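Quick start: what a row looks like.
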Amino acid sequence: MRTERNLTRRLDRVFARLDREPERPAHIDVPRMSRHRVVLFTATLAFYLAIVWAVVITSWLVRLDWQVMFFRPYQQWPQIHAFLDYYVVLGQRGPTAVMVAAWLGWRSWRQHTLRPLLTLATSLLLLNVTVGAAKYGMGRLGPHYATVIGSNEMMRGGDIFPSGHTANAVVTWGILAYLASTPRARRWLSAVSAITSLGVGMTTVYLGTHWLSDVLLGWAAGLLILLALPWFELPIARTEDWLFDLRDRWRARRGRPVAEPAVPVTPVVLKPRSAPRAEQPSPAHEPVASTRASRGLAHLAPGPHTTRSERTPVTPAGSRRPPHTDHRVPRGTTQPARPLTGG
């Protein structure tokens, strides 16, 4: 009994010391920039520069832009105009950012990490900086505001090149595939985001709000941002650590307890309840390892966890009861009074 009490006290000290440990965010697997991704990023960047160069020198791509504009797709298929007016909202910055942020916010709350929201914020920041700088830097006018037939309409004070709707659709919906937890989900979400961004880009051409070359450059711009995200994973992880530390300091200043991190519970297999054989000695009690996983076993009291069959019944000294409790008085009979004897 004294040994059991000492062991219980030691376990209590270990648990108290573990309770005082500060909370740390969950470990983040930072994806590395693979060779395949580097090759794809380089090819996409070369395609981006080729589109810009083809428009600047007024090549065959500009002539194709004018031909599509004179074709006026919105007049060729007017029956789908009403549907595409709503479909193009899937590439608009505000509504899509709110929908995706709500989903990633729920994931962050369930997984106790800020990585999904910080990754979305980083991608939108890169999108605003890169696409916005290209738009105002090249200053191309849209089809509805073109002045000279056959010209590239560059440096005219416009903000149409590249297509912001297309780039935003690639980034906003592609971020779901980037943050997918399983390869199968990543494949399906990649296909869905590709089809969505392709439809948004062609819808802007149908409505006449963008040139065809604007859409091509918008696809390349959005894909470049998604491919470059692994280079920003380390700053995202450091920002997450800083925000968690800031939260802990704020809670400590307000006198609130710091939340405990989620600890995986290790299952403990208990022996079946069976009567111990008389010829076999009772097994010795082994001390329980003072690990962090044992804290999650709320149904076990601290101390040596043994089954009931392993506990040897102890008869207190001076008791007149027999050591076994199997002897019971049959029904219908009265128990004889025990004689009072001194001693």
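That is the whole record. Confidence is low (pLDDT under 50) at residues 18-28, 282-312, 339-343. The chain has eleven helices and no strands.
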